[in-house]
Every structure is written in structure tokens, then in C-alpha cells.
What we know:
- It is built from twelve helices and 14 strands.
- It has helices at residues 27-33, 40-45, 69-81, 102-108, 150-165, 184-191, 194-210, 225-232, 252-263, 287-303, 344-358, 391-399, and strands spanning 14-19, 86-94, 97-99, 118-123, 172-173, 176-181, 216-221, 267-269, 283-285, 308-313, 338-340, 367-371, 374-375, 380-381.
- The chain has an eight-stranded parallel beta barrel with strand order 1-2-4-6-7-8-10-12. A two-stranded parallel sheet has the order 9-11. Strands 13-14 form a two-stranded antiparallel ribbon.
- The protein is globular, with a radius of gyration of 20 Å.
Amino acid sequence: MCIYNKEKKMKKAEIYAYYFPNWHVDERNEQWHGKGWTEWNVVKCALPKFEGHYQPRVPLWGYEDESDPVVFAKKIDCATTYGIDGFVFDWYWVDGKPYRKKCIEDGFLKAKNCEKIKFALMLCNHDPSSSHPSPRTPRSFPLGTTKYTPDEFDRITSYCIEHYFDKKNYIRIDGKLYFSIFSMGKFILDIGGIESAKREIDKFRAKVRDRGLGEIHFSCIDNQGALLRKILNGEMGDVDVVGKQGGKVVTDFEAYNVVAKILGIDSVNTHLVGLPPAQEFPKAHFDGWLEIFEEFCVKRNNTYKIPYNLCVTVGWDPSPRTVQSDVYEEVGYPFTKIIYGNTPEKVGKLFEIAKNIYEREETTAKCIFLHSFNEWTEGAYLEPDEKYGYGYLEELKRVFKNY
């Protein structure tokens, strides 16, 4: 278990919401989906999959263009009013250049009140897929590549340093620039193995220091433990890192601990809490999350040897990302379970559990993450809709009003 830093509890928890940027026109989206396409098209076409299923979801603000700085200024005002300290943008680099970048570069950074809120990046190194919407067969096939060689990762990190890291409202944890990677197992495989990953991350840190920007707080999402075990145990063609020293990595938690030690990772986060059992596919009630959330978080807090940052997932429903005329069966993402019953009051109870966990002396979390501010087509959003209005945000403000 990570050694607890008592000084952390003297400060309020910083609350950061993930932000999904696909609500503006992007040239590659137009190549794949047609002129003027945005993911709002997917939202509008969604159909209910069972009686009482809340679809389509209608944004209270309308289907706005996030690359408009006036639109983003409203988002910033809203987020800060209800207690969100920063956005962690899902950030993409596909086929050698940024993808969906107008959200952050034209919308957020050009908003007149940009510096009212903090921001950071999560490098989403999963290939863009045909899930907007995805047919049942073939399901979610790749549309581009995010296979980062050492040279490509060098270009990515140089771009981030040049365009984002020097902003005074960039998120820092313990004084270090926060940067996370979504798919750590894939990153290690693509870049040439665990030793290559260490070299390139060390180079990244050195570049940041050379620019006078200090240090990197390097984080990752704990969604590829099984793949990391295979990598560390030499089952993916890489060096048998652990086997050289005797023994094998047995659990996903152990895999992250080993990788964190080798690569110098500073913290680990969850993006999506494990889905509760379905009563009858695809229906899984939000109460199931209320029952498992504490155990889920405490187990990770007590097992990881680096800080584990809490993440509250406010909903889950990727059904809009499926072809609506296809039969909805459990065949893999986005044909998954659907969380229902996540009313603002229920989500508020989840916020209360997260706050209670964070305030415990043994909790190692540096901050609290929210999934998500606006991932409408996965049913994970805080932005106001026509059914609940500002209900989710009101609950967030109620629970964390003293933070």
C-alpha cells in the first residue's frame, strides 16, 4: 500500500471531470461520416432498448459546437459554478497528427474565461473505430492508427509541450504537470516493450525539464491489467521482465505495481468502474454501483503501491453508438450492459460515498475524477439535459459544497 501523506488531507480535494471532444466538425470525421458530421448526429438517432430506457437524451443547451469559444465559455462558467476545478481532456493523436483538436485549441483555449478553470490531457491511444455507430458485425473496426513508435511519441510530447504545458492553468499535482495515458499495455507494446517505454518516458521528462517547466506527474488508467501481466511475463514477445528475477506476475494489481516501479508512474486512476450484474441483459441498475463502489475503490487504494485516484462514473449507456436497427445483444463494446436508474439523487449518493472514502486517513488519492462532463453517447455526462436539468451538477455541488 502507498504510504499515506497526512498533509494531503489539510487541502480540499481537487475535482476534475473528463471531457470528451467530438462535438465539433473534424476533417477526418467528415471523411468517415460525411460533411458536417459531429457525434450529436449519434445522440439524435438513439432509440430505447427496453421499456423505460431513457433514449434519446436531449441536451438542455441544444446541440452546440464546442469549438466555438463562446460555447466553451458557458461550459467553463457552468463547471466552476458547480464545483469542478478542471477538465481532463480526452486527447487524440491519430495517423501522425492531432485529432479532434479544435475543441481544446479553438474552443477551450480561446474562451475569454479559459483561465477560470484548470485543464490537463489524457492521451487516448486507442484506435478510432467505427462505433459512431457500430454495426453488430463487423464490430468497431479501426478507422485510423494510434501505434506510437519512439519517434512518434517524441513528436506527440513535443506538441504537448509547445501547445499546452506552458499554460498557467495547466493542472499540476504536487507541483508537477499532470499527464495520463489511457491504454498503458498498448502503449508499451507499440513503443517496443517495457525498456523502450522507460527510455521514452524518461526522455519526455527530460524535455519538460529542459523547457523549465519542472516535472511530470505521470499517470495511467487501470484498464489493461491482463495485457500488462502478459507483457511482464514474456507472453507478448517482449523480455520476460519478472521472470528474469524469478516468479511471475499473477494479478492485475501486481502488474500495475511492477510497471509503475519500472516506468516511474506517479499515480493510477480508474476511468470506468466495473459494471454491476445485469438483471436481464442489457439492464443493470445503478443501485448495483452503489453496492460495489466502496469495495472497488478501497481494494485498489490498499493494493496499489502508488496513489490511487478515485473516479465517479455517473452513468453508462453506449447503446447510441450501435446501429439502431441491429439486435442489441451482448457481443462486446458498444453492445454492453446499460446502467439505468441513475437519477440525480442516486448519483448524489455515489458522490457521498466517494467523498467519504477520500476523507479517510488511509486514502491515497490526490484528487477525485468524474466520468464524465459530456460523454453523451456513453450515458456518462454531467451537462444539463431536458429530463433532469442541472440535477447531476446540483448534487455535485451539494455533496462537495465545503470543498
